[in-house]
Structure formats: structure tokens, C-alpha cells
Amino acid sequence: MSPGTDLSEFLTESERGVAEWVFKNNKHAGATTNTLPSAKCLYMSIRGTGGALAVAAIVTKNREKPEAFEKNFMVAILDECGLALEKEMTVREKQAVEERAHQETLRANLLRAISHDLRTPLTSISGNANILMEGRGQLCQEKLQALYTAIYDDSMWLIDLVENLLSITRIEDDKLGLKTQPELLEEIFQEALQHLDRNASQHQISVELEDDLLMANVDARLLVQVVINIVNNAIKYTPEGSHITLSAHREGDQVEVEIADDGPGIDQDAKDRIFDMFYTADKKRGDSRRGLGLGLSLCKSIINAHGGTIQAVDNHPQGTIFRFTLGAVEETNHE
Questions:
Q1: Residue 287, pLDDT score
Q2: What CA dihedral angle connects 116, 118, 123 and 125, to 10 degrees?
Q3: What is the pLDDT of residues 62-108, one digit of tens each?
Q4: Residue 289: which residues within 8 A CB-CB, separation 6 or more?
Q5: Cα separation of 257 and 260, whole Å?
Q6: Residue spans per domain, the chain
């Protein structure tokens, strides 16, 4: 059959019916055979150990029956195709089993982590609320403020946890549903800064943009969540008074975003694992219940879903830079 040949006559419903019969019965049929001989092609099954895996359609010249050597040669080729297909199917089935096992392990780990990490803040909230109820009029203003603050902090931590869990669930179920459109990085940054940890006021947080009209194709809601998670991470792990800088610039067809701090930095082992789910770089913190290890893993999933990359690198002379890329909005010249 020469290139450019019209194949429409071989793609009719009747031809499809013959191919389906061959696949179902694992036998040859069609032209030059005694089964459905009116077909335009000779249909031969590609066999595996468990039955037909596919069907090959062979256009015969002048509907002549192939000689024994030709038929044996075709069968040999199709048998090799069957072995290759079966091998590929086995690999895919193994990958599917491994993926299901991974998902089950992930869900089990997530459930264990959540059940453990939820207990501490909930116990703290209920305990502090009980003190407030039983100690009315007996607590000084300083003690009352401490209790209110503790309840607020634990409540906000629970809200952030739920938001991250919902996003992770959508990602794992492939239901993230990105709704990208051109967005100003300035507006993304400012929106994120409105929803930071209460301790943000103890740090020097600034925004530096080479172009106030710099835009990227993003899902604004999800990118705001990325910025919040990374900045809150810097607030959590850097001392009071540290500088945290949000910046972005264009690099070809991408926008490179950096969130830098001048804190103690992250050692190399932690940088290699910091985006793994459930990993926390500092397990010795007194408030370790706030180290579930979902935030940065979620950031990586969101950035990857946008087609970008994310990494943690050293800041100089000290500190850490979280750097990620996004698709830039094509620049248009207006005259």
C-alpha cells in the first residue's frame, strides 16, 4: 500500500465488525479465509498467553491467499508483537499495583500523621477553653491574653492544615483543576501577605519586583497558597527580626520567583528531602506539632502542576532561598 492511499474503505463498520470477531474468538478471518470472506482485509489476532491482545489487518493483493511461507512469516511477526505487547502490559500492571500500594501507604501515613497531630492542638484548645470557663474573674489580663493567643494559634494551625489536606487530596485524586490565567505577581504577593502567620509582624518582610506589571499564567488561588506556605515556613524557622524578601523576574519564557530569608539556613541533607511529604527539617522544636510536613510538599505539587520547578538553595551570606518557575505571559507591544 503506497503512502497517501485512501484508507476509508478499510474503516467501515463491517470491517470493524470482522476485527471485533477476530479479537473475541482469537481466530483469523476476513479476506482469503472461510470466515467472513467478504471483508476487504485479512484479519489476524496478535496472541498472548491469555488470548488475543490485538488484531492486525492485512491488505491482500487481488484477494490472493498468502503462500504458506508468507503466512508463517506473518504469524511469526505477530507472535513477536504479542510477546512485546504482553511484556508492556505486564510492566504497566506492575506499575499500577505499585502505584496503588504507594497510594495506600500514603493514605495510611497521612491518617496516622493527622490523627496524631490533630490531637495536640485540639487538646490544647479544649484545655484552655476549660480554664477560661472555670476561672472567670480569677485570671489576670496577661493570663487571659496568653490563653486567647494559644487558642487562636491552634485554631489557625488547624485551618491551615485542613486547607493543605484538601489541596493534597485534590492532587492525589487528580482533581486539582487548574484554572490558569494571566495574573500580576504584585497582586499575588500582596494577597498572600494578607494571610500570613500572626508572628509575621516580628519579621521584616518586603517585596522586590523589577517590573510592577510582571505577569505569569497561574491559578491565582493555588499560587497564593504556595507563597503563604513558603513565607510562613520562613517565619517559623528564622529568628525574630529576620528579613524575608519576595522577588520575581522574567527569564525568557518563564518567570522566576524567589522567597529569600537571612535565617540560619538549611543543611544539604534537609534540602534534598524538604519537599517530601511528612518531612520536617527541625524535629526538635517545642511546637513540633506544627511540623506535619505537608506545606512544602504541597508547594512542589502545585508548582509541578503548573509545569514549573521548585528548589531550595543557599542564600549568601546566610539563609535560604526558595526558587520556583512559572510560565510567563507573552509580552505584547501596544503602540
A1: 40
A2: 160
A3: 778 888 888 899 999 999 999 999 999 999 999 989 888 877 776 67
A4: 117, 120, 121, 157
A5: 10
A6: 8-92, 108-172, 181-327
Helix (H, G, I), strand (E, B) or coil at 43: strand
Residue type, 113: A
Cell triple for residue 79?
507472535
Amino acid letter, 221? R
> Are the C-beta atoms of residues 301 and 287 closer than 8 Å to each other?
no
- The answer on pLDDT for 245 being more than 60 is yes
Specify the pairing of strand 204-209 against strand 320-327.
unpaired
Give CA torsion, residues 77, 82, 83, 85, to 10 deg.
120
Residue 41: burial class (beta carbons within 10 Å; 0-12, 13-18, 19+): buried
- What beta strand segments (E) does 143-214 contain? 181-184, 204-209
CATH, range 181-327: 3.30.565.10
Q: Which residues of 68-91 are buried (b: 16+ CB within 10 A; e: fewer)?
A: eeebeebeeebeebbeeebeeeee
pLDDT at 334: 43
Query: Domain 8-92 classified CATH 1.10.10.60?
Result: no
The yes/no answer on whether domain 108-172 falls in CATH 3.30.830.10 is no
Closest CA to 282 of 233, 249, 318: 233
- Distance from C-alpha of 314 to C-alpha of 322, rounded to nearest angstrom: 9
C-alpha cell of residue 312: 531550595
